[in-house]
Amino acid sequence: MPYPRAHYFVLVVIGVIAVGFWPSYFGAWEQARWQFHAHGIAASLWVIMVFAQSWTAHHRQLPLHRAVGRTSLFLFPFLIGGLAAIIDVTAKRYVADADPVRQMFGGSFLIGMAVAMAAYVTVYYRALRYRRQAWTHAGYMLTTPLILFESPFSRALNMFMPGLVIAGVADLHLIMTSILWSMALELAVIALIWWKYRERAAPFLVAGGFIALQIVTMGWLGDLPVLKSLLTALAQVPSAAVWGAGFAIGALTSWAGWNAGRRGAQPVREAVQTA
Predict the structure, then answer these.
(1) Less CB within 10 Å around the terminal CB: N or C of the chain?
(2) What gap in Å lies between CA 89 and CA 106, rounded to an integer?
(3) 153 within domain boundaries
């Protein structure tokens, strides 16, 4: 089976999520806005699902592995809907001038979340399309917790890393620094995976391209006036419509990817499993 220790990596991501989001989400559950619940619950379930997929595959529980995998078809629309919900709350709090963090980084957060949504749609579609090719399928599925890793890890850096700890409003600029360092770490992990597995790890290079795009756009293009105009426009859209649009994109991805991976839907050369 490919990536024999992958479930340990996913466990690390789960631990980082618990630490990074404890102060702002898990430890403030009752005060959290519904948009954060829409994202937090779906993303947490998704990472647990990926862990279960990896564990069952490496313990030869293939029927259970396939059953868990099928649940992803129904979970993925909620994952993308949750990302759209974060875009919604970012826009509304930016316009309301109710959040200094979103006033400072609203444009960066908007474009970063948009790139993340595109990344998830791309890698999940390809994971479904190539689900009969073990290395390709596993690689694309394992990129999803890696893409997610930046958000909780950057928060952990702002809590514990000397030089990046946020003690007050004057330190808020360190948020973007920690985000960029977290993404750089993701790229370093991808480089190590590629060095070990080479062509078999091609799915991680796809994810790496999206992460590199996030670094460029969030780090250097976040102050573009067009992004601030988009935030203002999105703030006028009903929240349910923004979440619903994300849900629809996720549902379409599940449907299209599943059908693209059916037997007979691919050319023979794509269906051959390479050793």
Answers:
(1) C
(2) 10
(3) yes
The residue among 38, 36, 48 whose CA lies nearest residue 72 is 48
Q: How confident is the model over 129-167, as pLDDT tens digits?
A: 999 999 999 999 999 999 999 999 999 999 999 999 999
Task: Give residue 98's pLDDT band: very low, low, confident or very high (50, 70, 90).
Answer: confident
Torsion angle, CA of 44/46/48/50, rounded to 10 degrees?
-150
| Run of H or E residues at 17 | helix 6-21
If you write DSSP's letter for every residue of 149-193 in order, what string do you get?
Answer: HHHHHHHHHHHHSTTT---SGGGTTHHHHHHHHHHHHHHHHHHHH
- Measured in whole angstroms, the distance separating CA 34 from the mean position of its chain's CA atoms is 19
**Any idea of the CA torsion for 183, 189, 192, 196, to the nearest 10 degrees?**
-130
158 close to 175: Cβ distance less than 8 angstroms: yes
- Our count of domains for the chain comes to 1
Report the sign of the C-alpha dihedral through residues 188, 122, 271, 133, in that order: positive
211: tokens are: 């992460």
Maximum distance among all alpha carbons in the chain? Answer: 59
134 lies in which domain range? 6-263
Q: Is residue 76 part of a domain?
A: yes
Evaluate whether residue 18 is within a structural domain: yes
Residue 185 is assigned to a structural domain of this protein: yes
Alpha-carbon gap, residue 171 to 158, rounded angstroms: 9
Beta carbons of 249 and 121 less than 8 angstroms apart: yes
